[in-house]
């Protein structure tokens, strides 16, 4: 697995290249360092926009509609600030770029968020 790390403000963007044998299970990891209301996973095929896969919103899991076969999320302990995406029984079409995105909680003056 190759590891590339790039600093961006208060977050770390870490890129991993994962190789898998077709039919095996793969787990992709996402670590974060800020509080988050929701964690989203997306995948992107070359030349296409990102595709929503699954969301964990305060412990409530929402899948894409229709659900993507073989995709599940593991977010056992938010205090550890870690969430996994599991791809079961990988197939060639699982080859893509995967993104973990979080929506932070509001910690400052939320009134400025609704300014017109």
Automatic annotation (TrEMBL):
One of its GO terms (biological process) is adaptive immune response. Keywords: Adaptive immunity, Immunity, Immunoglobulin domain, Receptor, Signal, T cell receptor. The keyword Signal applies. The keyword Signal applies. Pfam families: V-set. InterPro entries: Ig-like_dom (IPR007110), Ig-like_dom_sf (IPR036179), Ig-like_fold (IPR013783), Ig_sub (IPR003599), Ig_V-set (IPR013106), TCR_variable_region (IPR051287). One of its GO terms (cellular component) is T cell receptor complex. It comes from the Eukaryota. Residues 22-114 form the Ig-like domain. Gene3D superfamilies: Immunoglobulins. This is T-cell receptor alpha/delta variable 28.0.
């Amino acid at each position: 697995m190759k590891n590339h790390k790039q600093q961006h403000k208060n977050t770390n963007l870490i890129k991993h290249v994962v190789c898998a044998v077709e039919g095996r299970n793969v787990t992709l990891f996402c670590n974060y360092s800020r509080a988050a209301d929701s964690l989203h996973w997306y995948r992107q095929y070359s030349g296409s926009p990102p595709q929503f896969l699954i969301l964990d919103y305060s412990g409530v899991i929402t899948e894409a509609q229709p659900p993507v076969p073989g995709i599940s999320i593991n977010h056992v302990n938010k205090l550890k600030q870690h969430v996994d995406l599991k791809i079961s029984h990988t197939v060639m079409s699982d080859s893509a770029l995967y993104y973990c995105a979080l929506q932070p909680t509001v910690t400052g003056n939320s009134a400025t968020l609704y300014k017109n």
